[in-house]
């Protein structure tokens, strides 16, 4: 990559740092108060229904749903959440009064009695959040941090509720603290507001580490991916859980630029067939065997760097001569330690939400560098 591409990377990082500080300074208190309202809805038996119609918005809807349903932080409770996307059919057949409805595009269609949250200007909603600036990639990164923060901090209010009645019938045993009381919820809101700001500062620093420390790796990865795509190759993206939705997002972004890209997490029939008949370790490697061609590239996302199916996929891609890019957290895990990818971008954290947020910046920057005139 040229000096122009390196300069562009610096500009992209600076824009993100400025937007991150501005957005969360402005919105920390509102996010804290929304956490409180969402907790009340969950305790009353409501669900979170995330809406997304475009390919990009669909990835966010699925991401927020998987975080609430499958908490990866020890001690967090699984909360009822579902994504309703374009292929799901009318949202009206899923949303019920009392639910929290979160929209990432389009307009919110919800019955009376719902708490509505919008991360798109035209969506409406009781609570609307509009990230600053014009860059859609930066917007999405800020929104990802925002809904991660809502997921992380909504749990604080469960333990400070003034409710004393059973919730959800047979699920009441999940909330043994309902008999406890907290007289000053405003003080809790203030604590949560400060926590929002701390988390925003954390991801800001981690984003700088990811894009700065891995500068050369990102530039080299962009050069290889661009070479592959310019020659007619395809980018194959993969990951698990929240990283699967990030793979979905990366594919949507490359396709939006007219590039060939495949999401190996998309086809549930293929994934469940392989998992059932062979094992989960093979779900991506088997698809690379079937779909990968000489000249293609692979983008693998993993917060740990140790996921067996990601390791197997990278090994298979290397056997077939495909270019490989891995974005990993912690210390890089096996992927970094064993040199399993041509280009490894390490986000040095053990906090999964922050890793994913910094990785979103990394693959967005990768995509912009691939399309950079100075590439």
Explain what this protein looks like in three dimensions.
The chain has a 5-stranded parallel beta sheet with strand order 2-1-3-4-5. It has 11 helices and 10 strands. Strand 8, helix 9 and strand 9 (323-328) form a beta-alpha-beta unit. It starts with a helix and ends with a helix. It is α/β, with parallel strands linked by helices and 375 residues long.
Q: Estimate the strand proportion.
A: 5-15%
Rg to the nearest angstrom? 21 Å
- The share of residues in helices is 40-55%
Average residue-wise pLDDT? 90
Query: What does the overall shape look like?
Result: globular
The ordered string of helix (H) and strand (E) elements is: HEHEEEEHHHEHEHHEHEHEH
Q: Give the total of beta strands.
A: 10
Q: In what order do the strands lie side by side in the largest sheet?
A: 2-1-3-4-5
- Quote the distance from N terminus to C terminus: 5 Å
Low-confidence sequence ranges: 162-182
Structural class category = alpha/beta
Biggest sheet architecture: 5 strands, parallel
Write the layout of secondary structure elements.
Blueprint: H1 3-43, E1 48-52, H2 55-69, E2 81-85, E3 100-103, E4 115-118, E5 127-128, H3 136-158, H4 185-213, H5 215-230, E6 235-238, H6 242-256, E7 261-263, H7 268-277, H8 285-291, E8 297-302, H9 308-319, E9 323-328, H10 333-337, E10 343-346, H11 352-371
Helix pairs in contact: 1-3, 1-4, 2-3, 2-6, 3-4, 3-11, 4-11, 5-11, 6-11, 8-9
